[in-house]
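User: Here's a chain of 268 residues. Predict its fold as C-alpha cells.
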Amino acid sequence: MPATVTPFGEFLRASRARVDPADAGLITGGARRVSGLRREEVAVLAGVSADYYARLEQGRERNPSGQVVAAIGRALALDADARAHLFRLAGLAPGMALDASRDLVHPSLRDLLDAFPTAAAYVLSPSFDVLATNPLATALLSPFTGTDNMVRVLFSHPAARSVFVEWGTVATATVHALRLNAGTYPGDPAVHGLIKEMLATSQEFQAIWKDQTVGSLSRAYKVFVHPRAGRIELTYQTFDVRDAPGQQLLVGTPTPGASADAAASLLS
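Assistant: Prediction complete.
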C-alpha cells in the first residue's frame, strides 16, 4: 500500500524549496531543474541518510526523533515559528486545546483597550474573529461592518483592497499566522472550519496557503485608506493574552504628522 504524504512531509518539501543552496554553503554548478535544496543535500546538512530523509518527506517514516527534527530544522534554516511548527507536525510538541474562554474577553482587557485613546486596539481570537475593539479601531474597521472575521474581510469583502493599501502583504502575513494557529490548536473547529471555507471559496487564499509558510503576527506597518479620514499609517504591535490562550491584542499607533491627524479626525 503506497504511503500517504503527511503534513510533516509537505512542510519539509516546501521549506527546502525556499532555501538557496549558496546560503546553505553548497557550491553548485550549472542550472538546477528545481528550486531550493535537493533531498540529498538536506540529508547531508542534517546528518541523516538520504533514504531516511526521503522516507520522511514521502510519509513512509512517521516517527523521527527530536534530535533529527532539530537537525533538519537547522539544515532548512527555519526560524523559531517554523521550527516549533515542524516539531508539532512531527508529533513531538503537544498541540494546545482551547476552552470556552477562546471567545471571551476578560473585563480587564476591555478596560485596557480604552487605555489607548490615540491607537487602534482590538482583540482577535485564534481564528481571527474580532472579539473587542476600542473606539478608534471600531471607526477604522467601519468599512467592514457586518464582517467580524479578518480573514473573511481580506479575502471576501469588496472594500478590502481599497482600504488596505498593501493588501498582498497583509493578506499573506495573515494566512501565515493562521497556518501557525492551525498547528498550535489542531483540534479547534473554528480555526479549521475557517481554513476549509477559505480553501473552497478563495483562489488567492489557496495560493498563499499552499506555500506552507508559517509566521506569527508581530510588529507590522500597515497603511489604510479610510473612506472618511483618508490615508492612515499605523505601526502595529501584537501581544498574547495570558488570561485566554490563543487570543491576541493588536495595538496600532499612528505615525506622527498627517497620519496622526487623520486618525484623530477619524476618532472624532
